Each structure stands twice: as structure tokens, then as C-alpha cells.
Amino acid sequence: SQAFKCGKKPADCVFIALQEIDMGVVSIVAGSTGVSHKWSLIVDEVVQKSGGAYVVESEKTLGGVFAAVIVKKDTKHKLCIHNVKTIRLGAYGMAANKGAVIFKCTSGCTKFVLIGCHLSPHTENWQQRNDQVHQLLKAVAGTYDYLLFVGDLNYRVALSYDETLKLINQNQIGKLVSHDQLIMTMQRDKVIGTLKEPPLQFMPTYKFDKDSTIYDTSEKRRVPSWTDRILIKRGPKRLS
């Protein structure tokens, strides 16, 4: 039920973006997967529990990315979806192991773009992630008043595993944030810097041992990071 609230008020629109629902070979190559139907059924079940107040306006899958737009039925200016686009970001645009689903919408005279995506992983692929963000922003340039950019962006804390754990144990969120790849990129890159994000005031959410609150103790020792992000951007002001 919390998904349908914006603070204490009912939400007019709910955007769901999931990643890695299926990372099998068929999904990566074909871009489609039967797993998306299972998620569609789950979303439908949740919407039905809203008592008929909401409806799934649109949904789309690309490889492991599943995204759905849910709208409140009695919204004064109903969100109308005009175009849904998918962009493959893996293997030079050929594979769907990484990608994005883009919804172009209007509500009244206001234009919205909703992007659910999964960018390249691993600490060393920082610039590749930046290039993918540039690619997606270029693909929707000039088509929105408001942009919502959501997903597993895979940006990492640019410190060693041990250094990061030490700062976490000392509750040094500020120092951790100062080494976050996305924050540093937003400070240096004029294009990506136009995206905005609320302050990070919680510890990294990636990656824990299964069914625990202990950060990754596997051989990979993945550096704790904020990989899942929600960014917003306002387009150029215009008269309507």
C-alpha cells in the first residue's frame, strides 16, 4: 500500500523499474523473457488491492529490465503515454544484458519522461556508465518538462573494500558520499550534473550476504555502494 502514497497523500502516478529479472542467454540476446509475465501478474495483483483506484497504464521489458507505469483513475489530468522505447546498452548496443526502457508521457500540457535502466557494472567501468547516461539523456533531449531517471546505475564508492567498511563502522556517511562515483561525476560533468538527487543519508545498500545485514564476504568482496538511484531533472522552462 505504501507504493500508492506520496507522503501521506495518494500518488497520482507510480513508476516501477526492476533490473535483472532474467539474465539468461535468451533474455540477453532476444531482449524478451517469460519472467516478465510473472512480474506483470504480481504488479496486477498489487494494483487490484488498491480497490480499483489505480490501473496499469503501460509496461515494457527489455532483457532483465522490467518497467511499469501505474496511474490513479480519478487524476484530473490523466497521464497519457505516447511512446515507449527500449535501448540496448550491452555489447555496443547489441545485447540486452544492460539497457533502458523509456516512457514518454503527458499530463495536461506537461511532458514527462520516465526512464528505468540498468547500466554497466564493476568499479572500473565508471566512464562506461557516464557514456551510457549521456546516451540516454541525448535520446530524450528536448522532449520533457520533467525527467525521472531510475534504476541500477551501478556507480560505486571509489575506495577499497576495507576502507569503505571502516567508514561504515564509523558512521562516516559524508566521507563515503564524497567518494561516490556518481556524486563526483555530477560535480565534474556539466550534462550529468543537471540531474538532481536528494542527499544520501543512509548507508550503502549494495551488497549484502544473502538473508543478512552483513556486507559481501564472498571472494569478490564487493565494495559497499549506492548502486540503485533515483534522479530527477527539469527541462527548460517554457510558456504553456
What would you say this structure looks like, in words?
- This protein has 6 helices and 10 strands; from the N terminus they run βββααβββββαβαααβ.
- The protein is of the alpha+beta class and 240 residues long.
- The protein has a 5-stranded mixed beta sheet with strand order 6-7-8-9-10.
- The longest helix has 14 residues, at 35-48.
Task: Supply the key terms.
240 residues; alpha+beta; 5-stranded mixed β-sheet; 3-stranded antiparallel β-sheet; 6 helices
Q: How is the biggest beta sheet arranged? A: 5 strands, mixed
Distance between the termini: 35 Å
Mean pLDDT level: 95
Percent of sequence in beta strands: 25-35%
- Structural class from helices and strands? alpha+beta
Q: Would you list the SSEs in sequence order as H and E?
A: EEEHHEEEEEHEHHHE
How many DSSP-defined strands?
Answer: 10
Portion of residues within helices: 10-25%
Low-pLDDT windows of residues: none
The largest beta-sheet arranges its strands as 6-7-8-9-10
Shape: globular
Number of helices: 6
- Specify Rg, calculated over alpha carbons: 19 Å
